[in-house]
Amino acid sequence: MNIKILSGIYRTNEFIGKSVKEQNPNVILDLFKIDSKYWKTFGVKNTSQIDNSIIQIFLNNNYVWNTLDNSSDRGRAIDIKLINPISGKVMSGSSSGSAINVLYGLNTIAIATDGGGSVLAPAIALNLYSILLSGIGLKGSSKRKSTDNIDFVSGIGIIAQNFEDLFNAAKLFLKDNVNSDVSKKINILLTSEINCSITNKLKDYEFNIIEDKDLFFREDLILELKNIFSSYDIFIYIERDIDIDGIGDSVFGIMGEKTLSIQKKSNKKYIKVLNMLNCTALSIPMGELGSSIVIAAREGKDGLYNILEIAKMINQEFRPKLFIDYFLDYPLKDKDNRLFKI
């Protein structure tokens, strides 16, 4: 019996009207139709861009639907209704509620959408794992325009507390005809921020290292990423300190030089454009708040397999034990309540 799953479902009630829009009234009944050793729950971002066929894949694989998750207003990159539980600042969006519900262990995973960073950014802001699946064709149905006037179709992504849960969810979308002979055949580019403890694990691959460029505007990031993927299959870099010293939102940033300066301090890099270039990308949280290693692959059916294999090699638990105890294991923590203790 998985006590964390059961307690997470029960404690979901505390988050209704905040990060949770609605809880499935049949979630406990659905859960007990499955052998308890396979219990997993998920939340779905409240958007029509996630097709029923995607949700059905999870239902067919012993995942139980627990929540419909709130998100930021009209896809904004910040959610002024929700607070980042770690920093106490405004929450990164737009899949803000989905990330918070995973952080507190209400759900094993969240299924969400990403236009210009809306899966990766909230996950990174809360030091969670995430994956964007645009590169293998998991997209929404409608073309939209970003807040800085770039056309895109939302990509589908997954957020999870740990690598095992993310890996198991993502591999449901691996195709049978994928090229599994990945070793030594792909070219990898890393930024110089990636330390030797990571590069040593990639010694069987061909890779080059470049200095990270301080790019901000989406047009420049798109051009640079196109140049990278014209020569390389995989790009590994670090998103660091996002939305800690600044507010990474274009609606805010257009309101003058001062707000633009504050927006730039949000430190968001390629996560703003990975979906726009139909990339597959996976984030591994680091020990510093709002920071993750990002492994990105150019569009193509082999991209998901490649980044999962590389992530397995370089993944490790960087996050402090107190963070894990306080947030990720929240459903397992006894709550002080005068009414029910003598």
TrEMBL record:
SUPFAM superfamilies: Amidase signature (AS) enzymes. This is Amidase. It comes from Brachyspira pilosicoli (Serpulina pilosicoli). It comes from the Bacteria. Pfam families: Amidase. Residues 88-177 form the Amidase domain. InterPro entries: Amidase_dom (IPR023631), AS_sf (IPR036928).
